[in-house]
């Protein structure tokens, strides 16, 4: 019985320790969207130059 509880607590601690940081994930997602938007803006600014 003791081994089962020890394994249980070890699993809980491991899960908490390796839990992804939701704020960091959201921030990285926001930066990725921002980079994509900036890249699209640059592409659209280049297109009229190429058509002339």
Question: What does it look like?
Answer:
This protein has 52 residues and is an all-alpha fold. The protein has 2 helices and no strands. The longest helix is centred in the last third of the chain and has 30 residues, at 22-51. The termini are far apart.
Q: What's the rounded overall pLDDT mean?
A: 85
The percentage of residues in β strands lies in under 5%
What structural class is derived from the secondary structure elements? Answer: mainly alpha
Helical content band = over 70%
- C-alpha Rg (nearest Å): 24 Å
Count every helix, treating DSSP H or I runs of 4 or more residues as helices: 2
Specify the overall morphology. rod-shaped
* Cα separation of the termini: 79 Å
Which residues form runs of ≥5 with pLDDT under 50?
none
Largest sheet: none
Say how many strands there are: 0
Could you spell the SSE succession in H and E letters?
A: HH
Outline the secondary-structure elements:
Elements (H helix, E strand, L loop, with lengths): L1 H16 L4 H30 L1
How is this structure best summarized?
By secondary structure, the chain is mostly helical. 88% of the residues lie in helices and 0% in strands.
Descriptive tags:
mainly alpha
């Amino acid at each position: 019985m003791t081994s089962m509880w020890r394994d249980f607590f070890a699993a809980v601690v491991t899960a908490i320790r390796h839990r992804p940081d939701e704020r960091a994930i959201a921030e990285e997602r926001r930066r990725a969207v921002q980079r994509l938007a900036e890249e699209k803006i640059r592409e659209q600014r280049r297109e009229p130059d190429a058509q002339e």
